[in-house]
């Protein structure tokens, strides 16, 4: 598997910048639009659970689960960016992920941050 299989591929320059920092060096925040988030819940399917159980006894990376989690995180982040774009933001600062178990049925992934408008350079 290559880096792009885990969501690490390089794409075009985004129209909504997403950073984990509270500000963007060299850029001034003109307006704070408020919190934005992207949420998704993924159920586990039986095949991956059995495979993960066997692999955990042997040791090593659970590649199928890793790939699924990356896809889930990417989907949550895409939803966050869509929400920020819809509110007129060109950036999201203080970006974070939160991952929790959802009633033993699956995994909930929430991407969240603060939508802002950065001054043009």
TrEMBL record:
InterPro entries: UPF0145_dom_sf (IPR035439), UPF0145_YbjQ-like (IPR002765)
SUPFAM superfamilies registered for this protein in UniProt: YbjQ-like
PANTHER family noted in UniProt: UPF0145 PROTEIN SCO3412, UPF0145 PROTEIN YBJQ
Family classification: Belongs to the UPF0145 family.
Name of the protein in its database record: UPF0145 protein D0Z67_16085
Organism: Streptomyces seoulensis
